[in-house]
């Protein structure tokens, strides 16, 4: 097949926030935001193996103190903050309203982690600990101006013979809608759908089912060229089909509730905001695409309800066809990633948007099978040698956005791969193992260039 000649076109917009206050040379349009000191980052991530138990009330109080002077401006520019112009002029430097919104939606995701019951002896095991009316208060958010309307469950279509967990739906998030008071502050009625990240064993296995499969979410137009990761699609579409009274799929629950709310608030100015961390960001993007593909957000041929995804530490979800279709449908995605977070480089470590063209002009025949990120990317840079898991921790992401500080203990050009190489090479040097040194250097250099 003849190669297709393409004009150079960056696939992802980047804005980088670095601990060193010096832009990283490999990012585009960098802006500098220092991260917290190592000791503070450690404190923020030590409370939970899944996500830090940060206190969302802090930023809520700050917002309340300044809302009287900023309300009118935020209400007037909410469409720009939610990406109607792909955040042009708002990320370099990061606009305070955009930062405020990113943190706010991140805290909605944090509530999912804090409310998820992982106690096998509890009656609410694998579900939410609290009722819908009390959720925000119980997790320390007070009254954020939203009412939870629906809890969402996903059923992993994965069988593990040795697992002790029941094969049933797990609570993955919730749907909420802004109150009348919040409408006046935000400038519109906001429907928010929030997803937590991976916690249980079947979810981890679903995450590693790295193969592309046609999404086919619109039966009237299957679009076979639009492909998504099979594990994420399985979580999104699987149900307890053995029982006619069983749990419906995550997709059916979500589309039903979104349709109900859109009909209830018909005639008002609306927005659909989706946020998620890790696996949750994948579900958020699949739902955003689904809503737009089915036209649920279409008010008229020339007027759509904005659909925006705030993704924290999210992996790739689909191929280039999926990315292009999301852009065509007007789905806006803001990806907040840590440059040291390996999850954001998966799936498609080798075959991704960076390897589909030669010299930026000649497209390889297999480019349609490459994974591709969607949207605008804001790059953070943090690492803690005492707690390496912090690189993917949602609390670390939010803490850095909340409280940037100078003087971080991490050197400006270091990242997780450089640190790993130095550690391995040091051990190999001490034991005089030349093959190990060469293998370590080559392996780390390979992943560093991914």
Helix content: 25-40%
CATH class type of the largest domain: Alpha Beta
Shape: globular
> How would a textbook summarize the main sheet?
8 strands, mixed
- The percent range for strand residues is 15-25%
Judged by helices, strands and strand pairing, the structural class is alpha/beta
CATH architecture of the largest domain: 3-Layer(aba) Sandwich
Global mean pLDDT = 77
Number of H- or I-type helical stretches: 14
User: Mind telling me the C-alpha Rg?
Assistant: 22 Å
Count of strand segments:
17
Residue windows where pLDDT falls under 50 for at least 5 positions: 1-15, 18-72, 159-163, 406-417, 443-450
Alpha-carbon distance between the two ends? 27 Å
Query: Can you tell me the CATH superfamily of the largest domain?
Result: Alpha/Beta hydrolase fold, catalytic domain
Number of domains: 2
CATH topology assignment of the largest domain: Rossmann fold
Strand order of the largest sheet: 2-17-13-11-8-5-4-3
Helix and strand arrangement:
Blueprint: E1 4-5, E2 13-16, H1 38-45, H2 57-76, H3 78-81, H4 96-115, H5 135-138, E3 146-154, E4 170-178, H6 180-186, E5 189-195, H7 201-207, E6 212-214, E7 227-229, H8 230-237, H9 250-264, E8 270-277, H10 279-294, E9 298-300, E10 303-304, E11 307-312, E12 318-319, H11 320-329, E13 332-338, E14 357-358, E15 362-363, E16 371-372, E17 376-380, H12 394-402, H13 416-431, H14 434-448
Parallel strand pairs: 2-17, 5-8, 8-11, 11-13, 13-17
Antiparallel strand pairs: 1-15, 3-4, 4-5, 6-7, 9-10, 12-16, 14-15
Helix pairs in contact: 2-4, 4-12, 7-8, 8-10, 13-14
Subcellular location: Plastid, Chloroplast
GO cellular component, one term: chloroplast
Domain Fungal lipase-type: 192-349
